[in-house]
Amino acid sequence: MKGSALAGAALALTLAATAGHAGPRGDYMLECAGCHLQDGSGMAPKVPDMRGIIGRMVQLPEGRAYLGRVPGAALSPLNDADLAAVMNWSLKAFAPQSTPADFEPYTAEEVARLRSDPIQKPAKARRELLKALAKAGIDGGG
Ligand code: HEC
User: Which of 50, 82, 88, 97 could form an S-S bond across to 78 if both were Cys, CB 3.0 to 4.6 Å?
Assistant: First the structure.
């Protein structure tokens, strides 16, 4: 009995140590916060402040796609399911007000499709997206 309890504990530790089991917040801190900082505020002017704005971006199809195709996300070492979880977590953590109540969470399948086509000129894509958001009346800064 004692032996199998120990084996169980060892298995649990092994699973916990496997990549991707830090959970979305832990994955964000490991793989994204180096550039985006813990609170999503980024490092201007290179790394944009994603607070608030990402919840507006997902309201347009091209914005929803942009978040999965932007190089920092698309090229991250996280697998599709873990990246989807980080993106869904980021929306809750950094854009709780602007993310629509009926937002449909990213799935691993959607993320796999989006990240297979990373954006080549992200700064230009972002500028165009911000214009499209303003045109659609989905702006409001931040
Ligand atoms: C090496 C630095 C770096 C890392 C690491 C990084 N990013 Fe980024 N991220 C950027 C930069 C720079 C941009 C602005 C677009 C561009 O120039 O690529 C950006 C843009 C974004 C955006 C769009 C925000 C906006 O307002 O346009 C999202 C969402 C994003 N990153 C998510 C992530 C996620 C999720 C991770 C971790 C899996 C991550 N990034 C890791 C540098 C990074």
Answer: 82
Which residues are near ligand 1 (CB < 6 Å)? Answer: 31-32, 34-36, 46-48, 50, 53-54, 67, 70-73, 76, 78, 86-87, 90, 122-123, 126
Best residue among 28, 30, 47, 59 to mutate for probing ligand 1, ranked by most atoms within 8 Å of CB: 47
How big is the CA angle at 64 (ends 62 and 67), to the nearest 5 degrees? 105
Distance CA 39, CA 87 (A): 14
What tens digit of pLDDT does each residue of 13-69 get?
444 455 547 899 999 999 999 999 999 999 999 999 999 999 999 999 999 999 999
Give per-residue pLDDT as tens, 104-119: 999 999 999 999 999 9
